[in-house]
Amino acid sequence: MTGKPSLISITIFLSVLATSCGPSASEKEKNRIADSIVSGNSLTRQNNNTLDLSTNTQDNKRFSKTAETKFLVNDVRKTSEKIEDLTAKYSGYIIYSNLRNSESNNSRIEISRDSVIISKKIIVENDITVRIPNENMDSLVRELNKMIVFLDYRIVKLDDLSFKLLANQKASKRLKKYELRQTTHINTKKSKLKETVMAEETMLNRQTQADTLQVQNLAMEDQLNYCTLTIFIYQKPFYYTETQVLQNTDSFRQNLFIRIIDAMVDGWIIFESFIVFLFRIWWFFVFTVGGIMIYKIWFKPKKKQ
Fold first, then answer.
1. Cα separation of 16 and 13, whole Å?
2. Residue 159 pairs with which residues in a beta bridge?
3. Could you tell me whether strands 93-112 and 226-234 are parallel, antiparallel, or unpaired per DSSP bridges?
4. Is the separation of the CB atoms in 232 and 76 below 8 Å?
């Protein structure tokens, strides 16, 4: 046989080389996980600007819903007007609105003797609280999603009113039965005036309780039928710059002689202050004189004979 490699040896060598050069199973798994993380992050970024207030509730429960959200918009004033129009469109109403501008980073630069440049950072915000029928909430949210540039947060709160509403309804029925029996008792039984008055006062108290329960039931029904949504909107701050011309004060200067007298008075006050200052540092002169005397006595060089 010659020294040439056989076909089987060449095939085995190429298989080993391909296996070593290709990615391993662990590397493939790492790449798959990385791809899934990247895709998940992109999905999160896409859904970050979408407002969703839907919740899953039980059919036998009755909940009142309150929600709160904050997001960035392009123009606060125009967005506020759109929200007001949409609220009226979907049979809701606004109970609070606070559109405001706040200033910060104020700067004042003098560019000449009679003019300055004033720069301000303006932040525009609005807090809006609306009440909207529950069946129209999803439609309003879809309209709000068109205005969102960036969603900061959203909070949804559900309050279960089922048991409280049931308790009020049963209490109202008991009060009605009591009122009916008490009315029949007063009309049919002959009793003294004092007893009749006490019975009528008791019945009046029960009627008051019944009215209170009725009002509470109406209030809870309103909470169940309408959702309260609080919206905080803001826009990117912008800078406002203006040039202001200062009033010329040369014409308000005092007469020359008056200014000379004022200068002399000011000079005398400065002289008095200087004298007082010298008396305040008396210790400095004492140490200076004492140091000179010690130097002359101890350190003065002797004259040559």
1. 5
2. 64
3. unpaired
4. no
Q: What is the pLDDT along the chain (305 residues), one digit of tens a residue?
A: 444 445 555 555 555 554 455 555 555 555 554 454 444 443 333 446 677 666 555 566 777 788 899 999 999 999 999 999 999 999 999 999 999 998 877 788 877 767 888 888 899 999 999 999 988 888 888 899 999 999 999 888 887 776 676 666 666 666 676 666 666 655 665 555 455 556 556 666 666 676 676 777 777 787 778 999 999 999 999 888 888 777 665 555 677 888 888 889 889 999 999 999 999 999 998 898 888 888 888 876 655 55
* The two structure tokens encoding residue 268: 């005398």
Distance from chain centroid for Cα 110: 35
Q: How far is 212 from 209, CA to CA, in rounded Å?
A: 5
Q: Please, is 154 exposed, middle or buried when counting C-beta atoms within 10 Å of its C-beta (0-12, 13-18, 19+)?
A: middle
Please tell me the distance from the alpha carbon of residue 228 to that of residue 128, in angstroms, as a whole number. 11
Burial class of residue 73, CB neighbours in 10 A (0-12, 13-18, 19+): buried
* Angle, CA of 118, 119 and 123, to the nearest 5°: 135
pTM for the whole structure: 0.53
Distance spanning both ends of the chain, measured CA to CA: 126
